[in-house]
Design a protein that fits this description.
The protein is α/β, with parallel strands linked by helices. The chain contains 14 helices and 9 strands. The protein has 2 domains: about 160 residues, NAD(P)-binding Rossmann-like Domain (Rossmann fold, 3-Layer(aba) Sandwich); about 120 residues, Orthogonal Bundle (N-(1-d-carboxylethyl)-l-norvaline Dehydrogenase, domain 2), CATH 1.10.1040. The structure holds nicotinamide-adenine-dinucleotide.
């Protein structure tokens, strides 16, 4: 089996890497948080102490990092992937970052003889755990085909959106809409509950009516409606509010650059920013319902 270097073992990267170990890949794992590496080692991965350690012998490198800064540092830093990996290694960045940085890193990688794709994901932590993620890919056809076998061990839907950066644009369009849907869903549930309706009953009614949407049906923000979602565990372990603020910032920058109006996206960014600044950065983004409906 091929040798994989995996960097960034958080809420998403941890379970994605675990699925690759289960599929039989030889995986060397690195994260700045040693506890995240220990979990992978317990499952059969090899621990790396630096990015260079993780990638120097790898045939495939996968990264799942918070944002632009970390991706630039991990790939283009002094002891980063481009200076430490073997030429021709397949590089797959699954982080959600700006299209511009995705393009810059891909160009630097190509110049140094690497094949690279940007492959941000949708499907959340449950999709990462169950290997059912949707990959939204940017890059050259041949490289996308080269990446498919390993991506298939972590996901089940694959969209090739276009060249480098295209995957990132599609991804932030999705997340901007998700933020708007989560806020709208939170408002609707709070209103129903304020009038004495059972949140399970109102959720069931809307899920069979024209207001149905993913936030309501798969990721309900109201505690007590669903099991196995962040609202059932005090909003821990999901998609952090700070990461949603980052994605809404990327969407807004992209919209401004093309003069594309996104008024609800801008409002969602401001509401999430307030929620973040109120000390909720690491809580899952569905915790916005607490800001909207203080009861
Ligand atoms: P996370 O904060 O849980 O994990 C990020 C990990 O990267 C952490 O373990 C952190 O220690 C590590 N890290 C940071 N800088 C590093 C560095 N320089 N070197 C090595 N490791 C480093 O975040 P997450 O929820 O796993 O999200 C990761 C990416 O996936 C983000 O871009 C996010 O927007 C995107 N995403 C998240 C979800 C979700 O539901 N959580 C869904 C889709 C996409």
């Amino acid at each position: 089996m091929q040798q994989i270097g995996f960097v960034g073992l958080g809420n998403m990267g941890g379970p994605m890497a675990l699925n690759l170990v289960k599929a039989g890949y030889h995986l060397t794992a690195y994260d700045v948080m040693p506890e995240a590496v220990h979990k992978l080692v317990a499952a059969g991965a090899t621990a790396a102490k630096t990015v260079a350690d993780a990638v120097s012998a790898a045939e495939i490198v996968i990264t799942m990092l918070p944002g632009d800064t970390q991706v630039k540092q991990v790939y283009m830093g002094d002891k980063g992937v481009l200076n430490s990996g073997k030429k021709k290694t397949l590089l797959i960045d699954c982080s959600t970052i700006s299209a511009q940085v995705a393009q810059d890193v891909a160009i630097a990688a190509a110049t140094q003889g690497f094949d690279m794709i940007d492959a941000p994901v949708s499907g959340g932590t449950s999709g990462a755990a169950s290997a059912t993620l949707t990959f939204i890919i940017g890059g050259k056809n041949a490289v996308v085909e080269r990446a498919k076998p390993v991506l298939e061990k972590m996901g089940k839907n694959f969209f090739h959106a276009g060249d480098h950066g295209a995957g990132q644009i599609a991804k932030i369009c999705n997340n901007m809409l998700l933020a708007v849907l989560m806020i709208g869903t939170s408002e609707a549930l709070n209103l129903g509950v304020a009038y004495g309706l059972d949140p399970k009953v109102i959720s069931n009614i809307i899920s069979k009516s024209s207001g149905r949407n993913w936030a309501l049906e798969m990721y309900n923000p109201m505690p007590g409606v669903m099991d196995n979602v962040p609202s059932a565990r005090q909003y821990s372990g999901g998609f952090g509010t700070g990461l949603m603020v980052k994605d809404l910032g990327l969407a807004e920058e992209a919209a401004l650059a093309k003069k594309a109006p996104t008024p609800l996206g801008s409002l969602a960014r401001q509401l999430y920013q307030l929620h973040d600044q109120a000390g909720n950065r690491s809580l899952d983004f569905s915790s916005i319902i607490q800001m909207i409906g203080k009861r």
